[in-house]
From TrEMBL:
The keyword Transport applies. GO terms for molecular function: ATP binding; ATP hydrolysis activity. Keywords: ATP-binding, Nucleotide-binding, Transport. This is ABC transporter ATP-binding protein. The lineage of its organism: Bacteria, Bacillati, Actinomycetota, Actinomycetes, Streptosporangiales. Residues 19-260 form the ABC transporter domain. SMART domains: AAA. CDD domains: ABC_NikE_OppD_transporters. NCBIfam families: oligo_HPY. InterPro entries: AAA+_ATPase (IPR003593), ABC_transp_ATP-bind (IPR050319), ABC_transporter-like_ATP-bd (IPR003439), ABC_transporter-like_CS (IPR017871), Oligopep_ABC_C (IPR013563), P-loop_NTPase (IPR027417). Belongs to the ABC transporter superfamily. One of its GO terms (biological process) is peptide transport.
Length: 334
């Protein structure tokens, strides 16, 4: 099956989505070489749904998130919101960014130390010319769990705890009343004791406001606790996706199995060998084959798919809600 056919299948079989990537490719020039940071991705996020995008550093997660936000333009393919292709003209992008907001992983870096909490949260409403600024800021802080909000208006970031700073960042996003949050490692810089509070807040926002979210993370434990669905990304492509319980309790792709093996409850540790992902040098065949523990152990040869693993590329996965994996061995063994 060709990649074009796969994309058409993705469009026809995916459930109605709020935010969607269709056959998305994003390329950069790197020291005279072409880096395929996002190399054919279909992904959908439904209304009120939380999707976790997981994978190790360098796999293309952040580039995909930035492209969904309209901060990067795709080389080919498209981003769709509410059924319409994203319009990159400045006025249309400004309107789009009211609906789709970014929550960064480092609240210390994303908050201006010279601005009070009030000024930080009011920045978005001022850019978009929203009325009743003080009321908007107070409601956003309150929804983010900073109550009473007036107590925080004149505080500076250095006067807050790490968890409170992350709540201010979330309040800044909520002030524009978005429909989708894209959260890039939202708890990575926080102490373990505070992570649960921020995750609980995100789930409450989904319950209270019907918010959708794409949570970008390398932490499968976080995905388990917050997501409805999970998409596992490797070297620019989603290699496995599906409902979080199915993917994380019975992972089919060897890469997902390796990621899962680092969790404390995992019975067996998988140590990946070979070079880490390099988007300027994507290998032939399965893009994971050079590091694959199933191929290295001889199990792929026993199943008669080792030649395919080394030489036959896999189709781009469609944006369907059910479980799926781009793996020759998984296709054969079920």
């Amino acid at each position: 099956m060709t990649e074009t056919q796969t994309t058409e299948e993705a469009v026809s079989t995916a459930r109605p989505s709020l935010l969607e990537a269709r056959d998305l490719h994003v390329e950069f020039s790197s020291r005279g070489r072409r880096a395929r940071a996002v190399d054919g991705v279909n992904l959908s996020i439904g209304a009120g749904e939380i999707v976790a995008l997981v994978g190790e550093s360098g796999c293309g997660k952040t580039t995909l998130a930035r492209t969904l936000l309209g901060l990067e333009r795709p080389t080919s393919g498209e981003v769709r919101y509410g059924g319409a292709a994203l319009d990159y003209r400045s006025k249309a992008l400004k309107a789009y960014r009211r609906q789709v907001q970014l929550v960064l992983q480092d609240p210390t870096g994303s908050l201006n130390p010279r601005h009070t909490v009030y000024e930080a949260v009011a920045e978005g409403p001022r850019i978009h010319g929203l009325p009743d600024e003080q009321e908007v800021v107070a409601e956003a802080l309150s929804r983010a769990g900073l109550r009473p909000p007036e107590r925080f208006f004149l505080r500076y970031p250095h006067e807050l705890s790490g968890g409170q700073r992350q709540r201010v960042v979330i309040a800044g996003a909520l002030a524009l009343n978005p429909k989708v949050l894209i959260a890039d490692e939202p708890v990575a810089s926080l102490d373990a004791s505070v992570r649960g509070e921020i995750l609980a807040l995100m789930l409450k926002l989904r319950a209270d406001l019907g918010l959708s979210a794409l949570v970008v993370t390398h932490d499968l434990g976080l995905a388990w606790n917050i997501a409805d669905r999970v998409a596992v990304m490797y070297l620019g492509r989603i290699v496995e996706s599906g409902p979080v319980e199915q993917v994380l309790t019975a992972p089919r792709h060897p890469y997902t199995q390796a990621l899962m093996s680092v969790l404390p409850e995992s019975p067996e540790r998988v140590v990946l060998t070979g070079e880490p992902p390099d988007p300027t040098r994507i290998p032939g065949g399965c893009r994971f084959h050079a590091r694959c523990q199933v191929l290295a152990s001889g199990r792929a040869a026993e199943a008669g798919v080792d030649g395919k693993c080394r030489s036959e590329p896999l189709s781009v996965l469609p944006a369907v809600p059910g479980p799926q994996a781009a793996c020759h061995y998984a296709e054969l063994t079920g």
